């Protein structure tokens, strides 16, 4: 196997297997899930092989490219369909295929009662292929193809149980929010093209130092919009909570570990744009800071275990986005947090799935309680993830989140204090809502129905959880010992050349401060949830109400985006049709209505069309006359 | 006086089509009604294929003097003729489903005469020769190089279309109204075209495009005759391509016409009319570009924005596609303004991809029916993805191509014309184009959402099982849309090598 030619296999294998599963129909029901899992595992093996090959090469020779074919060649503009495997993309390849394979294994059991399991696995493989294309494309255009692909796979999977209307609605909402982001990406591609005449990462990187600041800022803003759509960041965050309607393994894979982090990848990949535009960077940190608090606050009020975890994902990605706005060193920490988060959040989602599996798909945490006894393995693996997200040393989150807090605090001046404050506050709230999840689910008195018989999940489900739990414990230490990941990514993000601001606080002080705040959060939650009513209390403060309603994000979207847009289009069509078009629009099916209506409108009608044409002619002549004056 | 020298080999495609059309008229007159449909279809098919073969044979031997100074069968002209013939062949497969056409067009809607004709099952098939006559006009329009021939070609392609618009079997009043409207407004715009030709003749003393070009070159060009001539000729052309503010016939005519005809008209007329438009502006009016470039740029921007936004709230599938075709006219107009060979090759590519997607989309529209015929109301298409996943997915594919989503042919087409506009320095036009295609994407995706993510309100709509020919037509369109998206170089290189108007 040649390291260079194997890259395409990463995408081709899962794509091919997905096609087989979809086309073969019911015939492959028996073995479809096994094929899909085997293919996913194979891609992971290829990924590991590529990693060791890459590791054995000197730093400058590490990136590999593989040209597939000449895609577009128009005049001076040329785009090849080619793949780029470098230090950044290999991190994602390993995460996607590794976590992906575990979730395939988990789903074999989780979906075993669903008669459409084969289709589910086909979509999972399709997702893997698209996500790998996203991180392996060597230009913004190739990335865009993968970007659309993961979107497609994501709707198919969110809406997998689309017989339930609420689920189909959720898929639609994700669809629309993602389109807004996609428009951002397509505009970014156009800006890149108009500025640099190319859309490859290498080409834009080479051109970025010579481009005008305004263009770079516009490019950065559009990329940020794209990232916000995909990664559920402010102001496009509202879809993530609803997307939890999909099967839980999907939430773990797509909406925790991989797809939603595509925005972080996009910004890190475009580091040369953001480094050259302080304004764009400022936008990035603002979005990150707002979202990390926004998500955390929503997380405190959710009774649905998956929605609580979704809010947490939103908040943690906020941390990553914030880190990417902090300059060269931030990128590496963002990726570090992305990887550790991939482990502990996917693990916790699978844990939530395991709880639901044992509790007849009950998602309301107020109806859990004391489950640690019935599901010891789930409780332990979940708790390890919990300790990781809190940032308790030596668990994974400690290494990644603390670094982000530190970097934010050291950003300098008021900016450092504001951002650092936000990240610290976020850490405290995170501790509160995550403790709340643990307390409500695993400890205290049992509040479930007498009919429910909670039981531990079978091995195919708990094994992936256990492996992810090991990752939650060890990944942070492994990736950051000797600055392993920072050095690895250095050639991509230029992390070595970061400017040294005055350290606001010593790392040890930051860590203790963060830990202290986390402790406050934990204790508050433990104290507050000594007893839990089965029904959510209705007499609550306006803050709780607001948080339960997702801080009114849907109302905001409707008021600011939906209504004006509808007004504009109806207005435009109204003028077109009332002034010009008359009543023909109402012409429906009934012949008698048509005939009477036609007789009435036929006369004035063509005449008014002709009138518009005459006005058009006058406008034309006038314009030409004015131009030539 | 010597007889004018005609190059029959180059003119053969047009002559073949006209010959086939005449035979079709004879068949219509002398053959018994029951056998007509099959015979007509074979004649049309053979004629179109023969013409296409001839176009392919002459592809490298183009000449600007095919018929003295009146017809120039040059590289770009040959490409457009080939495009029109290929698209017509596909559209013919849809037209072959005569169930869409009235049994007897002369019968008054709702009259006893009509019901007798329907019950007798005797289908008149004048649509086939009419189609061939229209195609002959379409082949001539983009290669005509003097104003009179242009006008003749314009009428040649328009007159059959006016009739064909009125042939719908169902909702006949709407159809006849569309035909009449199309005719009146078409005549109105033709008058402007003719008037503009007269002004250009008055200015230059010649009718040939080359003559006008050299007149602009030699004499001063700030001449009232020239400017009014440009404005009026533009009106005729902009009307045919459906650009704002000469667009308002489009929704009515697209809605009223029999759906296969709408597909044919939308794909082929647009290619022919844009072919002629490009030739006139590139060859004759190039020297006066300072006067019309700002104008056409503004019209292009307004057209694409208007089409994209107005399509949003349409409730009728065919009207929706009509507004989308208006938006596409705006996109192609950017190629007119760009005035370089890359824009020309981009436009040539665009005709093909837009044509395939359009015929395919209207082909799908013929399939979605209830007891009283095609279902136009878009709300009743909701949830089609569950009932007929293949039909809904194919329709979505065409919409995504219209919207310009990567990996579809439409994306490459847009990229080609926008990058040419950028290259020619029209950056604001590129930006406006990208913005309005972003708006348009929303509209196309909304339909996709309706098809797949919403639950149907009523169950009265069903998808009929398509006839073999309809199935072939839609499959060809879908395959072309995918293949040209994945491997556009196949066609782009060809378009590049043909992107030349011989002066």
Would you give an account of this structure?
- The complex is a heterodimer of chains A (629) and B (503).
- By secondary structure, chain A is mainly alpha-helical.
- Among the domains of chain A are: 277-552, no CATH class; 581-629, no CATH class.
- Chain A has 25 helices and two strands.
- Chain A has a two-stranded antiparallel sheet with strand order 1-2.
- The longest helix of chain A has 38 residues, at 591-628.
- Chain A is globular, with a radius of gyration of 27 Å.
- Chain B has 503 residues and is mainly α.
- Chain B has one domain (8-498).
- In chain B, 73% of the residues lie in helices and 3% in strands.
- Chain B has helices spanning 8-30, 33-57, 75-95, 112-120, 127-140, 147-165, 172-204, 209-218, 224-241, 249-256, 259-284, 289-311, 317-338, 341-365, 384-387, 389-403, 409-423, 427-453, 468-486, 489-498, and strands at 63-67, 71-73, 368-370, 373-374, 462-463.
- In chain B, the strands form two sheets. A three-stranded antiparallel β-sheet of chain B has the order 4-3-5, with no helix packed on it. In chain B, strands 1-2 form a two-stranded antiparallel sheet.
- In chain B, helix 2 (33-57) packs antiparallel against helix 3 and helix 6 (147-165) packs antiparallel against helix 7.
- The longest helix of chain B has 33 residues, at 172-204.
- Chain B starts with 7 loop residues before the first helix and ends in a 5-residue tail after the last helix.
- The relative contact order of chain B is 0.10.
- The mean pLDDT of chain B is 88.
- The chains are: A mainly alpha (629), B mainly alpha (503).
- At the A-B interface, strand 1, helix 5, helix 6, helix 24 and helix 25 of A face helix 7, helix 9, helix 10, helix 12 and helix 14 of B.
């Amino acid at each position: 196997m040649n390291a260079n030619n194997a890259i395409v296999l990463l995408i081709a294998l899962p794509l091919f297997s997905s096609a087989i599963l979809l086309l073969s129909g019911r015939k492959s029901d028996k073995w479809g899930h096994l094929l899909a899992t085997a293919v996913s595992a194979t891609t992971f093996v290829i990924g590991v092989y590529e990693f060791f090959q890459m590791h054995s090469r000197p730093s400058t020779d590490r990136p590999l490219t593989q040209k597939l074919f000449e895609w577009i060649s128009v005049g001076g503009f040329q785009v090849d369909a080619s793949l780029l495997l470098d230090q950044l993309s290999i991190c994602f390849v390993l995460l996607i295929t590794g976590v992906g394979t575990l979730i395939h294994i988990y789903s074999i059991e989780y979906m075993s009662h669903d008669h459409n399991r084969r289709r589910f696995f086909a979509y999972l493989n399709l997702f893997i292929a698209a996500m790998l294309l996203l991180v392996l494309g060597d230009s913004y255009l190739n990335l865009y193809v993968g970007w659309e692909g993961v979107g497609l796979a994501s709707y198919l999977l969110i809406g997998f149980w689309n017989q339930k209307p609420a689920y189909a609605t959720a898929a639609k909402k994700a669809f629309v929010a993602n389109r807004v982001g996609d428009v951002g990406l397509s505009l970014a591609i156009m800006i890149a093209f108009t500025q640099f005449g190319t859309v490859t990462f290498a080409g834009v990187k080479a051109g970025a130092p010579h481009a005008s600041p305004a263009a770079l800022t516009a490019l950065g803003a559009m990329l940020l919009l794209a990232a916000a759509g995909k990664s559920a960041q402010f102001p496009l965050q509202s879809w993530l909570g609803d997307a939890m309607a999909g099967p839980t393994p999907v939430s773990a894979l797509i909406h925790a570990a991989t797809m939603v982090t595509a925005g972080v990848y996009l910004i890190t990949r475009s580091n040369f744009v953001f480094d050259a535009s302080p304004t764009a960077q400022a936008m990035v940190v603002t979005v990150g800071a707002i979202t990390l608090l926004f998500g955390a606050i929503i997380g405190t009020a959710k009774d649905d275990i998956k929605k609580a975890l979704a809010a947490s994902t939103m908040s943690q990605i906020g941390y990553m986005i914030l880190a990417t706005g902090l300059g060269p060193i931030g990128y590496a920490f963002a990726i570090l947090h992305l990887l550790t988060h991939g482990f502990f959040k996917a693990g916790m989602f699978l844990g939530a799935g395991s709880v639901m599996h044992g509790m007849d798909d009950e998602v309301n945490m107020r109806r859990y309680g004391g489950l640690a006894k019935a599901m010891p393995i789930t409780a332990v693996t979940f708790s390890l993830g919990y300790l990781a997200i809190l940032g308790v040393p030596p668990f994974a989150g400690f290494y990644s989140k603390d670094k982000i807090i530190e970097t934010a605090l050291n950003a300098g001046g008021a900016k450092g204090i504001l951002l650092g404050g936000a990240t610290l506050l976020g850490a405290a709230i995170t501790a509160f809502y995550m403790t709340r999840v643990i307390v409500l689910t695993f400890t205290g008195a049992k509040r479930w129905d007498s009919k429910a018989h909670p039981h531990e999940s079978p091995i195919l489900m708990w094994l992936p959880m256990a492996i992810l739990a090991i990752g939650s414990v060890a990944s942070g230490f492994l990736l950051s010992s000797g600055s392993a990941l920072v050095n690895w990514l250095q050639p991509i993000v230029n992390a070595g050349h970061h400017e040294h601001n005055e350290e606001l606080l010593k790392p040890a002080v930051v860590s203790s401060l963060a830990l202290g705040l986390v402790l406050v959060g934990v204790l508050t939650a433990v104290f507050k949830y000594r007893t839990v009513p089965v029904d959510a209390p209705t007499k609550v403060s306006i803050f709780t109400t607001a948080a339960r309603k997702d801080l009114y994000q849907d109302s905001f979207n409707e008021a600011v985006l939906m209504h004006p847009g509808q007004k504009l289009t109806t207005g435009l069509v109204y003028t077109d049709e009332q002034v010009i078009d008359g009543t023909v629009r109402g012409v429906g099916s009934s012949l008698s209505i048509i005939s009477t209506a036609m007789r009435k409108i036929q006369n004035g009608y063509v005449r008014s069309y002709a009138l518009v044409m005459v006005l058009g002619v006058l406008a034309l002549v006038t314009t030409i006359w004015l131009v030539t004056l | 006086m010597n007889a004018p020298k005609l190059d029959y080999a180059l003119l053969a495609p047009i002559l073949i089509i006209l010959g086939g059309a005449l035979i079709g008229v004879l068949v219509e007159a002398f053959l018994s009604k029951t056998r007509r449909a099959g015979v007509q279809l074979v004649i049309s098919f053979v004629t179109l294929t023969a013409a296409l073969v001839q176009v392919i044979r002459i592809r490298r031997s183009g000449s600007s003097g095919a018929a003295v100074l009146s017809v120039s069968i040059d590289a770009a002209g040959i490409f457009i003729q080939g495009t029109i013939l290929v698209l017509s062949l596909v559209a013919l497969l849809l037209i072959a489903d005569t169930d869409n056409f009235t049994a007897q067009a002369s019968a008054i809607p709702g009259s006893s005469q009509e019901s007798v004709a329907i019950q007798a099952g005797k289908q008149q098939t004048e649509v086939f020769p009419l189609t061939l006559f229209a195609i002959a006009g379409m082949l001539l329009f983009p290669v005509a190089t003097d104003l009179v021939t242009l006008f003749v070609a314009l009428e040649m392609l328009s007159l059959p279309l006016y009739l064909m618009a009125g042939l719908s079997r169902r909702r006949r009043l709407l159809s006849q109204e569309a035909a009449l409207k199309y005719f009146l407004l078409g005549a109105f715009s033709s008058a402007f075209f003719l008037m503009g030709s007269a002004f250009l003749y008055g200015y230059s003393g010649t009718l040939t495009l080359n003559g006008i070009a050299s007149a602009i070159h030699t004499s001063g060009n700030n001449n009232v005759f020239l400017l009014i001539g440009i404005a009026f000729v533009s009106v005729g052309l902009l009307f045919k391509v459906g650009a704002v503010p000469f667009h308002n016939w489009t929704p009515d005519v697209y809605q009223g016409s029999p759906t296969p005809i709408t597909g044919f008209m939308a794909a082929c007329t647009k290619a022919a009319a844009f072919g002629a438009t490009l030739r006139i502006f590139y060859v004759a009016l190039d020297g006066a570009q300072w006067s019309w470039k700002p104008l056409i740029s503004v019209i292009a921007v307004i057209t694409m924005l208007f089409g994209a936004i107005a399509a949003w709230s349409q409730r009728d599938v065919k009207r929706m596609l009509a507004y989308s075709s208006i938006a596409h006219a705006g996109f192609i107009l950017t190629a007119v303004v760009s005035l370089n060979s890359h824009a020309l090759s981009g436009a040539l590519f665009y005709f093909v991809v837009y044509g395939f997607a359009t015929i395919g989309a209207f082909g799908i529209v013929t399939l979605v029916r209830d007891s009283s015929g095609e279902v136009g109301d878009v709300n009743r298409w909701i949830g089609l993805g569950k009932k007929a996943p293949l039909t809904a997915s194919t329709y979505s594919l065409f919409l995504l191509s219209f919207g310009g989503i990567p990996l579809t042919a439409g994306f490459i087409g847009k990229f080609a014309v926008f990058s040419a506009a950028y290259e020619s320095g029209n950056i604001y036009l590129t930006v406006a184009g990208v913005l309005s295609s972003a708006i348009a994407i929303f509209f196309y995706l909304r339909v996709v959402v309706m098809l797949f993510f919403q639950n149907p309100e009523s169950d009265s709509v069903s998808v009929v099982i398509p006839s073999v020919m309809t199935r072939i037509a839609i499959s060809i369109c879908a395959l072309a849309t995918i293949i040209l998206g994945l491997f556009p170089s196949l066609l782009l290189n060809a378009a590049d090598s043909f992107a030349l108007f011989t002066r």
